[in-house]
Amino acid sequence: MSVVIRAAAAFWIAAVLAVAMFRSGLYFETAFYRIGMMLSAAGALAACGMAWRLARLKGRLSGERRKAALSHYAAAAGPLGVSALYALSLLRGPASWQATIEQGLRWSAYAGFLLVVLMFLEDGRFRLWLAASLQLAGALLAAGGLAGWFGWMQHPGMVMLSGDERLSATGARLGGFFQYPNMYGAAAGAFVLWQLALLVRERRAAASAWSACTAPFCFAAMLLTESRGAWLAFAVGWLAGLLLHRSEERLRWLACSGSLAAAGAIGYRLALAAGPGHAAAGYGEAASGGGIAGLWRSAPPGAEAALAVAALAIGGAALFGLNRKLAAVAAEGGGGAAASAGRARSVTGGGGERAGAAAPGGRAMSVSGERSDSAGASAPAGRARSVAGERGESAGAAAPNGRAMSVTGERGESAGAAAPGGRAMSVSGERGESAGAAAPGGRAMSVSGECGEGLGAAGTPGESAAIAVPASRRLAAIAWPIFTIGFCIAFWTVWSAVEVRVEGEGRSGTAVARLAYYMDGWTLLKEAPLFGQGGGTWRAQYASVQREPYVSGEVHNGYLNVALDLGAVGLAVFLAMLGAFLLRIGRRDAAMLAVPVVLLTHAAIDFDMSYGYYWILLFCWLALHSSGGRRRGEDERTQYQSDDGTNAVPER
To answer: Which site among 268, 277, 415, 514 is 20 to 30 Å from 220 CA-CA?
Structure first.
């Protein structure tokens, strides 16, 4: 696949995401029709192209490769299965014929879009282009929402104004182009975690700078939604990322999270002063278009908006600098030690990483590498040389003039060195097991453990000593203080603004209202538990079972809504579709599960799944990280491949 085709496909995906966002997130059917028909047509063409390709390569593909190719495209069978279930509902007389047909068309469009993405992802080099499309979508999401908040852009419903403290503690909530703060907050939170996950593992300076600079803006936008459900889903996703990252990346995740939280929270408070809630306290008049709404729209942007943007930009720069520092500390994870008086130095590297040592004065030098990687040492003036071999193979070094000799064995097997003349002796054991050396004459002694564990050397009267502090300890010494301070700053900053709404939730807040929806939804589900009542069941039937007065066309739970429409059978197909994607991501790169966890968790307490943008964005992420990425035991130097299919060399 040529670069031009990959670029065109990436532009098409970015355009679909942008149009879907600008058209109210494709919540309304009138906004969905045109783009839905286009996605369905594109999916049909993609299906024909893939079938033709597989048929043409039938003789050249082995059975296993053909099976792998088919399983790659089988991921699109989930949305097609859901669409087929809605079509079958028409045979049983659904609660709403129109809603059932609309849902069937929606899911066929989602399947078509997913087929197109999977077709291009068959070329692994397209992953970089798809990631770029998603990065652009995240930037537009944050920039568009903040521009609407500051009054730089006019779009219906971008900011929800209310004088009811049960709906907003500050009088205004950011809804973005979706016109709904809760959905906007969930999408912004997912982008924050994606940028954070890329930041802690990306070694390239340009990619790290982009993630570091956009993350604070997305975080501030999420806070401006004042959506407690989105914040809760974000916390669940953040915790998942913390638990699923590797040890050193986990510490970088903590440190970057603390810096990001502080920067985003400070920008949030400055944005509050520059937004629609700063001019007056009469929020109740906003519904009629007067009062604060009219006052805000007529007021030019002040210095507060520029100050908020500057604070977020500075926070992004600080986050980038912190991440580079953490990367430098992690890069030193091989371990190192320097011997006083220049007598001896020994370094052991794990995981096949580079390891080296230099001995001041050229007296002694020792290096151990793991996993059969190259490892060697040379000492100026021919004083010492040492090479370590893996898996118990022979390894040794002889120093001219009989000054030093070193041998390293693996898996705790015997290893020893004898130094003629009693000048130096060194032994390295693997897996932190005991290893020791005795130097006749008391000149030098060195012991090395693997995996960054204890490393030390003891000689007589200070002749030589070497101690290496593991990288994990140095990262922990940086990460925990930064995370603690950043979290405290963010919590105090946000809590002081929304405290009144959180405290009033127990009396008659929106969470209490949702419980009524769920209880009535369960009652309605029991009427047709196996196959449901077709599309739009809740909207058409909730009045017949409601126990309290309310008007809501959505049940505020995406999974319950699917069960009401398609019953237990449809819900099982739906969950199997999501589970297949999540299982593949878990096998390839489990830490990236944090991103879809935010969206899937929030959908359990709101109606995000009714937005077409939700599924287009989610399927992009699921396809991207289930089709590639680092597998267990691998340590890619960059998250995505470059155009030539290779990994870029990390910048130091």
So the answer is: 514
